[in-house]
Design goal:
Elements (H helix, E strand, L loop, with lengths): L15 H5 L4 H13 L3 H12 L3 H8 L10 E4 L9 H18 L5 E6 L5 H14 L3 E4 L17 H9 L3 E5 L8 E8 L9 H10 L11 H11 L2 E3 L1 H15 L15 E4 L5 H13 L7 E3 L25 H10 L3 E5 L6 E7 L2 E4 L2 H17 L3 H6 L3 E6 L5 H9 L2 E5 L3 H13 L3 E7 L3 E4 L8 H18 L3 H12 L1 E4 L2 E4 L4 H15 L8 E2 L3 E8 L4 E2 L17 E8 L9 E8 L5 E10 L2 H20 L1 H4 L6
Parallel strand pairs: 2-3, 2-4, 3-6, 7-8, 7-9, 12-13, 12-14
Antiparallel strand pairs: 1-5, 4-5, 9-10, 10-11, 14-15, 16-23, 17-23, 18-19, 19-20, 19-21, 21-22, 22-23
Helix pairs in contact: 2-4, 5-6, 5-8, 6-9, 10-11
Length: 641
């Protein structure tokens, strides 16, 4: 779907009635409802073409269910149909969201809207704006096309929560599918606290959407509405102001190291925005912070510099994916550079690769998380006494599937640590909660290369992470160190942590529930609340089931993290009981169903005295889980790990 020209009903020159008359009875009402509500020429034609081709199975897939609204908002493939991302479903979601926020904040009806460069992101943003305008909201548009001569205006995702905080808005929407495949798009919702929504808001918004499915009177009259609202001031072109304030905030709050090159050195790092929106804001920030300039201080991968929704040089626009950094590493090799830095397409995530002893190593999310935490800890310690008196209670947090190395660091260095459920909706909101309790929470992360610096936003921010990492590189360079040296120092002080993360492909989403049900039956049939052993080599020490609501090491056996009966998640710690390992060795794992992909994900981390022992332990647990729990030869799960 690439053409979203909205037309008035009746312009489509096809005999709709005769086509609908051939439909099976169970599809007739659904197709009629779609055609009555959708005024987008392309998606109307898409449904009619399926009717004409008598593609009943495909029509059932498109129309039988409605795209689910959850804590991640909306995300799906861009196609016609109630179960897909398209102008109508975005319009309906926006009407429900606008009504919900209007009821919650009747005295502050204001919202921020932004979008990335993906196909249809601009038109999805326009119908979103129109919905809020119809309820009397003041809309701060980060991608307004009102500026003469400017086209293809877009922003990086962190600018939306940043703008909510700065403007005091009651909500925000970012149209983006982040690092998903090119035919996907998404609708990410932020609440008045600048964080992604958490329960019960998701359920209540979904109910409001269901109550507001009928397009409102002016819903399809977007162009006229936006033009008039700009004239009256109800719609505000806000990008320039917010970009300036964001740039100033990053430079004043995150920059503590002076980098002076002024062309006196050759380019010392390579940057890639992965065909996304990152270069524009990245180049502004590093120029203001240190006057760094492209082709003088850094190189940008030319094939990936400009926003391109086709993502032509990568099979999957995710910096974590194998091969995504290949062009950057090739450019660095040819230029004698040892660091490649990159963002995902909407620039809210960050990754880095480093050349050490002649070999390239892409740092994992957990390795980057420790390096950032170590930097934040050092910066905090170097603060004047007045700052520490105002911020006496340092706290760092990460997601429960991320490394426990920060937890160990907190125990040694005597600061507060907590973990949360997976996702920055939980990390951001928990940081806000801790701040209300008197803690200073400058950093949070999760292993999927997401890093939050809450002096800027309470969400992941790939540009903030990049600015922090550049300072770390500069300091390491002056000290003759590399990130690998810092990791070794951390292992020596806090223990050697090594991970083995992987996933199983789930051919049928219902299979995830079946597999977890069989796992529980394997020990419950013996009258146990949790398993005693995993094979012959590992004993369970702690066990937490966030689906059923059980935790073995709390006084009342109730989990300290939120329980969700609709999703599958088990975490446990194990102790090896074979002679090859020490009694102090341990392994922690989490297995969970993915909320956005047909995957069953497994996160394993081992701690031992050496890197080799930790790696061996983690891999042995993967193998044991594969044999005794996931049994791909019997369950139908598949994996390449």
């Amino acid at each position: 779907m690439s053409d979203n020209q909205v037309v008035k009903t009746g312009l489509l020159k096809m005999n709709v009635d005769s086509l609908v008359s051939v439909l099976p009875p169970e599809l007739s009402g659904k197709v009629t409802e779609w055609l009555n509500n959708d005024q987008n020429e392309h998606t109307r034609r898409e449904i009619l073409d399926l009717v004409q081709a008598q593609s009943w199975t495909e029509l059932h897939k498109r129309l039988d269910t409605r795209i689910a609204f959850g804590t991640a908002g909306l995300r799906s493939k861009m196609e016609a149909g109630f179960s897909r991302m398209n102008t109508l479903t975005v319009l309906q979601a926006s009407q429900g969201l606008a009504k919900y926020i209007s009821d919650k904040f009747p005295e502050n009806k204001s919202v921020v809207i932004g979008h990335d460069h993906r196909f249809n992101s601009d038109s999805f943003a326009q119908v979103t704006i129109a919905a809020f305008l119809q309820l009397g909201f003041k809309v701060y548009d980060l991608c307004s096309c009102s500026r003469a001569g400017e086209e293809n205006i877009f922003v990086h995702t962190p600018l939306v929560p940043f703008s909510i905080d700065r403007l005091g808005c009651s909500a925000g929407v970012m149209i983006t599918a982040s690092h998903n495949p090119k035919l996907d798009n998404g609708y990410k919702v932020y609440y008045a606290n600048g964080c992604q929504i958490i329960p019960p808001h998701d359920t209540l918004i979904a109910q409001s959407i269901e109550a507001n499915l009928q397009p409102w009177a002016e819903a399809w009259n977007c162009a006229t509405m936006l033009t008039n609202a700009l004239k009256t001031g109800q719609l505000v072109d806000s990008k320039a102001t917010m970009v300036e304030q964001y740039t100033e905030a990053v430079c004043s709050r995150l920059v503590t190291t002076t980098i002076r090159t002024s062309g006196s050195t050759d380019p010392w790092f390579v940057y890639t925005p992965m065909h996304g929106v990152g270069f524009e804001i990245f180049s502004k920030v590093v120029k203001k912070a240190w006057n760094l300039q492209e082709n003088v201080d850094y190189l940008c991968v030319p094939e990936q510099k400009c926003p391109d929704p086709e993502f032509p040089t990568v099979s999957f626009p995710n910096p974590e994916e194998k091969g995504a950094f290949d062009l950057g590493i090739a450019l660095a090799e040819a230029s004698g550079i040892s660091f490649v830095l990159g963002n995902d397409p909407d620039a809210d995530r960050f990754s880095a690769a480093v050349k050490v002893h002649g070999k390239w190593k892409q740092l994992t999310g957990n390795e980057l998380g420790f390096l950032f935490a170590n930097r934040v800890w050092q910066v905090y310690n170097d603060q004047p006494i007045e700052f520490k008196e105002c911020n006496p209670n340092l706290a760092l947090i990460n997601s429960t599937v991320s490394s426990q190395m920060i937890k160990k660091m907190a125990e040694v260095e005597k600061f507060h640590f907590e973990d949360t459920l997976t996702g920055f909706k939980w990390l951001g909101n928990r940081a806000r909660g801790l701040e209300k309790e008197g803690y200073y929470v400058p950093f949070a992360y999760e292993e999927a290369i997401g890093f939050m610096f809450s002096d800027i936003v309470h969400d992941k921010d790939g540009i903030g992470a990049l600015v922090m990492f550049l300072q770390m590189i500069w300091d390491w360079k002056n000290q003759g160190l590399s990130p690998v040296d810092l990791l070794k120092d951390g292992f020596a002080r806090y223990g050697v942590f090594q991970e083995y993360n992987g996933y199983y492909i789930v051919p049928d989403l219902s299979l995830t529930n079946t597999v977890f049900t069989e796992i529980r039956h394997s020990y419950q049939k013996d009258g146990l609340k949790f398993p005693a052993k995993l094979g012959d080599d590992f004993e369970f020490v702690t066990f937490t089931d966030l689906t059923t609501g059980y935790q073995s090491d709390t006084s009342d056996n109730l989990p300290r993290l939120p329980v969700d009966h609709s999703s599958q998640m088990i975490s446990a710690t194990l102790r090896p009981n074979n002679s090859g390992f020490s009694s102090t060795d341990s392994v922690r794992f989490t297995a969970r169903g993915s909320g956005t992909e047909p995957k069953l994900k497994v996160y394993i981390e081992a701690m031992s005295s050496t890197k080799e022992r930790s790696k061996t332990l983690a891999k042995e647990v993967w193998d044991a889980l594969k044999i005794y729990w996931f049994r791909p030869d019997q369950t139908g799960l598949t994996t390449t790990f």
